[in-house]
Protein backbone atom coordinates (compact mmCIF):
# COMPACT_ATOMS: atom_id res chain seq x y z
CA UNK A 1 0.00 0.00 0.00
CA UNK A 2 1.59 3.19 -1.22
CA UNK A 3 4.79 4.79 -0.15
CA UNK A 4 5.64 5.45 3.48
CA UNK A 5 7.68 8.56 4.13
CA UNK A 6 7.74 7.67 7.82
CA UNK A 7 9.24 4.22 7.23
CA UNK A 8 11.75 5.72 4.84
CA UNK A 9 12.69 8.50 7.24
CA UNK A 10 13.24 5.92 9.99
CA UNK A 11 15.27 3.69 7.64
CA UNK A 12 12.79 0.84 7.97
CA UNK A 13 12.66 -2.05 5.54
CA UNK A 14 10.31 -1.09 2.67
CA UNK A 15 8.66 -4.51 2.48
CA UNK A 16 7.59 -5.01 6.11
CA UNK A 17 8.24 -1.50 7.52
CA UNK A 18 9.42 -3.11 10.77
CA UNK A 19 12.99 -4.29 10.27
CA UNK A 20 15.92 -1.89 10.19
CA UNK A 21 17.89 -1.25 7.00
CA UNK A 22 21.06 -0.19 8.76
CA UNK A 23 23.05 -1.88 11.50
CA UNK A 24 22.63 -0.55 15.00
CA UNK A 25 24.24 1.04 16.91
CA UNK A 26 25.40 3.68 14.46
CA UNK A 27 29.17 3.83 13.94
CA UNK A 28 30.79 6.87 12.42
CA UNK A 29 33.52 4.72 10.83
CA UNK A 30 30.97 2.80 8.77
CA UNK A 31 27.93 5.02 8.26
CA UNK A 32 26.55 2.80 5.50
CA UNK A 33 26.79 -0.54 7.30
CA UNK A 34 23.56 -2.24 6.32
CA UNK A 35 22.01 -5.46 7.48
CA UNK A 36 22.38 -8.17 4.81
CA UNK A 37 18.77 -9.15 5.19
CA UNK A 38 15.78 -7.71 6.98
CA UNK A 39 15.47 -9.41 10.38
CA UNK A 40 11.67 -9.35 10.11
CA UNK A 41 10.80 -10.31 6.51
CA UNK A 42 14.18 -11.55 5.19
CA UNK A 43 14.31 -9.00 2.35
CA UNK A 44 17.80 -8.78 0.84
CA UNK A 45 18.95 -5.23 1.57
CA UNK A 46 21.26 -5.18 -1.45
CA UNK A 47 19.21 -6.97 -4.14
CA UNK A 48 22.09 -6.96 -6.63
CA UNK A 49 25.71 -5.73 -6.73
CA UNK A 50 25.83 -2.02 -7.43
CA UNK A 51 22.16 -1.60 -6.57
CA UNK A 52 22.81 1.63 -4.68
CA UNK A 53 24.58 3.25 -7.61
CA UNK A 54 21.23 4.79 -8.51
CA UNK A 55 20.93 6.20 -4.99
CA UNK A 56 24.02 8.26 -5.71
CA UNK A 57 22.31 10.16 -8.52
CA UNK A 58 19.22 10.57 -6.43
CA UNK A 59 21.14 12.05 -3.50
CA UNK A 60 22.98 14.34 -5.91
CA UNK A 61 19.74 15.76 -7.28
CA UNK A 62 18.08 16.10 -3.87
CA UNK A 63 21.15 17.56 -2.20
CA UNK A 64 21.60 20.08 -5.03
CA UNK A 65 18.13 21.49 -4.45
CA UNK A 66 18.39 21.26 -0.68
CA UNK A 67 21.57 23.33 -0.74
CA UNK A 68 20.92 25.55 -3.73
CA UNK A 69 17.53 26.89 -2.66
CA UNK A 70 18.54 28.09 0.86
CA UNK A 71 21.79 29.52 -0.48
CA UNK A 72 19.97 31.52 -3.16
CA UNK A 73 17.43 32.70 -0.59
CA UNK A 74 20.19 33.86 1.76
CA UNK A 75 21.94 35.79 -0.99
CA UNK A 76 19.01 37.27 -2.91
CA UNK A 77 16.29 37.60 -0.27
CA UNK A 78 18.19 38.13 2.98
CA UNK A 79 21.07 39.92 1.21
CA UNK A 80 23.82 37.84 2.81
CA UNK A 81 27.24 38.05 1.21
CA UNK A 82 28.06 35.06 -0.96
CA UNK A 83 30.88 34.08 1.43
CA UNK A 84 28.52 33.99 4.41
CA UNK A 85 25.89 32.07 2.44
CA UNK A 86 28.45 29.51 1.22
CA UNK A 87 29.84 29.08 4.73
CA UNK A 88 26.34 28.44 6.00
CA UNK A 89 25.76 25.93 3.20
CA UNK A 90 28.99 24.04 3.93
CA UNK A 91 28.12 23.75 7.61
CA UNK A 92 24.58 22.66 6.73
CA UNK A 93 26.01 20.07 4.30
CA UNK A 94 28.43 18.73 6.91
CA UNK A 95 25.65 18.35 9.48
CA UNK A 96 23.25 16.63 7.10
CA UNK A 97 25.87 14.51 5.29
CA UNK A 98 25.09 11.16 6.96
CA UNK A 99 21.37 11.88 6.77
CA UNK A 100 21.63 12.33 2.99
CA UNK A 101 23.90 9.34 2.55
CA UNK A 102 21.54 7.00 4.35
CA UNK A 103 18.37 8.75 3.28
CA UNK A 104 19.14 8.37 -0.41
CA UNK A 105 19.70 4.64 0.08
CA UNK A 106 16.47 4.33 2.02
CA UNK A 107 14.59 6.30 -0.64
CA UNK A 108 16.10 4.18 -3.42
CA UNK A 109 15.14 0.89 -1.73
CA UNK A 110 11.66 2.25 -0.99
CA UNK A 111 11.18 3.22 -4.65
CA UNK A 112 12.20 -0.26 -5.79
CA UNK A 113 10.53 -2.50 -3.20
CA UNK A 114 6.80 -2.51 -2.52
CA UNK A 115 5.16 -2.83 0.88
CA UNK A 116 4.02 -6.41 1.42
CA UNK A 117 3.34 -7.46 5.02
CA UNK A 118 2.63 -11.09 3.99
CA UNK A 119 6.39 -11.73 4.11
CA UNK A 120 6.58 -11.01 7.84
CA UNK A 121 7.69 -14.12 9.72
CA UNK A 122 5.02 -15.35 12.07
ZN1 LIG B 1 11.49 -6.35 6.16
Task: Provide a compact summary of the structure.
The protein is mainly α and 122 residues long.
Task: Kindly describe this structure.
- The chain has three helices and no strands.
- By secondary structure, it is mainly α.
- The protein has one domain (5-119).
- The two termini are 20 Å apart.
- The mean pLDDT is 92.
- It binds zinc ion.
Task: Outline the fold blueprint.
Elements: H1 5-9, H2 53-76, H3 82-112
Helix pairs in contact: 2-3
The structure holds zinc ion.
Search tags:
122 residues, 3 helices, elongated, mainly alpha, 0% strand, binds zinc ion
Number of helices: 3
- How far apart are the termini? 20 Å
Total beta strand runs: 0
Q: What characteristic shape results from the CA principal axes?
A: elongated
Secondary-structure element string = HHH
What does the radius of gyration come to?
Answer: 17 Å
**What value does the average pLDDT take?**
92
Strand fraction equals under 5%
Low-confidence stretches: none
What's the number of domains? 1
What does the main sheet amount to?
none
Structural class by sheet pairing and helices: mainly alpha
What bound compounds does this protein have?
zinc ion
Specify the helix fraction band.
40-55%
Amino acid sequence: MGFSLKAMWQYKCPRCRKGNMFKKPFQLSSPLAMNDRCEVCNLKMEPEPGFYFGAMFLSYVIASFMFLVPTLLLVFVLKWSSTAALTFTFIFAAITYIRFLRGSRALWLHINVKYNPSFIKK
